[in-house]
Task: inverse folding
C-alpha cells in the first residue's frame, strides 16, 4: 500500500478534482433528495447516499460541498485518476509493461470511466463516458509532454507502481470496487 501513497505524492495530477467525469451537481443532488437531507448544525446539511457516500453542504454563496466515499472500496474518482495517469505513462513509455499488462490497464480504465460516468450526477451514458475518457486521455497525455520516461534499465518507483497496478489481483480488486453503485467522488483518495 505504501507504493500507492508514493504514487499520489509523485504524480500531483492524481489528486486533482477537475476531471470531466465524476462531475456532480451538488445543488441539484440536494434538491432532488431533499426528503433525505438532515440538518447537522446551523449552516450545515448532510445527505447520506447509498454506497454509502456522505455529502455535507456548508452554507455560503455559493454553498461548498464535501463528499466522502465510505464504502470501504475507495473513492471511484481516485481510482479513475490514478489509472488515467498510469495508462498515459504506460502509453508514453511502452517498455514499462508487456502488451498484455498494458491492455489490462486500458481495460480497467475503460470500466472505471463507465462506472464514474454512470455514478456522476447527473449520470452520463456509456458513450458519453467514453468520449470524456478520450478527452481526459488527450489532456493528461499533453500534460506529460515534457516529461521523460524512466530509464528502462532502472527499476524506479513510477515503473514499480505501474507494474503493480497491472497485476491481475490489483485489477480484480479494482473491478470489485466498482460493483457497488455509489456517487463517484474523489475522497478519500487512498
Result:
Amino acid at each position: 500500500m505504501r507504493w500507492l501513497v508514493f504514487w499520489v505524492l509523485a504524480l500531483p495530477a492524481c489528486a486533482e478534482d477537475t476531471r470531466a467525469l465524476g462531475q456532480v451537481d451538488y445543488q441539484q443532488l440536494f434538491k432532488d433528495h431533499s426528503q433525505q437531507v438532515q440538518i447537522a448544525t446551523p449552516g450545515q446539511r448532510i445527505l447520506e447516499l447509498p454506497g454509502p457516500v456522505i455529502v455535507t453542504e456548508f452554507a455560503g454563496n455559493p454553498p461548498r460541498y464535501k463528499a466522502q466515499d465510505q464504502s470501504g472500496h475507495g473513492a471511484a474518482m481516485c481510482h479513475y485518476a490514478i489509472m488515467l495517469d498510469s495508462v498515459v505513462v504506460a502509453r508514453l513509455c511502452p517498455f514499462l509493461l508487456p502488451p498484455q499488462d498494458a491492455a489490462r490497464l486500458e481495460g480497467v480504465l475503460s470500466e472505471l470511466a463507465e462506472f464514474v460516468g454512470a455514478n456522476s450526477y447527473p449520470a452520463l451514458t456509456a458513450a458519453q463516458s467514453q468520449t470524456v475518457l478520450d478527452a481526459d486521455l488527450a489532456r493528461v497525455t499533453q500534460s506529460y509532454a515534457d516529461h521523460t520516461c524512466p530509464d528502462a534499465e532502472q527499476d524506479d518507483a513510477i515503473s514499480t507502481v505501474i507494474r503493480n497496478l497491472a497485476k491481475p489481483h490489483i485489477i480484480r480488486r479494482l473491478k470489485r470496487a466498482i460493483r457497488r453503485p455509489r456517487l463517484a467522488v474523489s475522497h478519500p483518495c487512498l
About this structure: The chain is about 45% helix and 10% strand. The longest strand covers residues 44-49. The CA atoms of residues 88 and 142 lie 10 Å apart.
